[in-house]
Amino acid sequence: MNSKNYNNYNSQRIALSIEYDGCHFHGSQRQTNLRTVQQTVEDVLARVFGVKSSVDFSGRTDAGVHARRQVCAFNSDGIGRYGLETFERIIDRNLPEDISLRNIGIAVRNFDPRRDALSRTYRYYIQHGPRRSSLSRNRKYHVRQKLDVNSMKWALKSLPNTEVDWSAFAGKTPVHYCTHRTLMNANLRELDSNTLEISFQSDGFLPHQVRIMVGALLRVGRLKISPDTFHLLLLGEIGSAGPAVPPEGLELAHVSYPTGLVDWVHNEEKISNYIDSEYRSKILI
User: How confident is the model at residue 277 (pLDDT cuts 50, 70, 90)?
Assistant: First the structure.
């Protein structure tokens, strides 16, 4: 636990690393008369500390999408009144059961969780084969047929690791919206004989991009298109590589930042390793 004394500061930029089950949220971003992660966190902070705080998120997640490390930040003078350890406990105890606080830290005053991020990693989980698990129905997308996993791995290797236009794998975007992104890593892991973990790391993602990429990859696994055809989907019109797979199998796994922006209380690497092992044990039910 960090032993620094923050009592001499009037206002601090507080960073939170949160985990949430997206099943009962209409996405992460605040929406009128709908339950969202952002609104829920802001309501908790207002109720506990008596002051409304605007909470900035590292990125949006759609309805039904989960997060293991969503980073958000807000301004507060609560550190001086409560101390960091107490501050952390108060927030976590007042969050609903489907949101948990994984880490807390003091950020630089101009910290922007979205613009300062170096990369984001999303993971999608698939169960393939005739047998399905009712316990993991909100964590894995079930495909009844066995997939050609080797072809899917080969298709992922064909994707470029340079900045390109990903609009063919995007949902609806605003006019003049930049659709160029750099995919840093794409990987498929077999967690067991029936469970696949597909991960994508990029400097940014377009709306529904990951779900559309997985949907196209499933066409490769079902032998409906070849790995080479998968690569050529990049050349298509906006949204032409779809359709998207359901949101339940998707999670925001990690957000990376330059060192020095946030002084986290807990070791981030240890937390990430623990959450990875904990989450995968639940995925393999």
Answer: low
Among 21, 56, 62, 192, the active-site one is 62
Task: Kindly give the interhelix angle for 149-157 and 209-221, rounded to the nearest 10 degrees.
Answer: 130
Where b means 16+ CB within 10 Å and e means fewer, 202-217 reads bebbbbbbbbbbbbbb
Residue 62 falls in the annotated catalytic set: yes
d(CA 283, CA 150) in angstroms, rounded, equals 21
Reported as a pLDDT band with limits 50, 70 and 90, residue 56 is very high
What are the structural domains of the chain? 12-116+257-283 (3.30.70.580), 119-251 (3.30.70.660)
pTM, rounded to two decimals: 0.90
Q: Is 128 left (phi over 0), alpha (psi -120 to 50) or beta?
A: beta
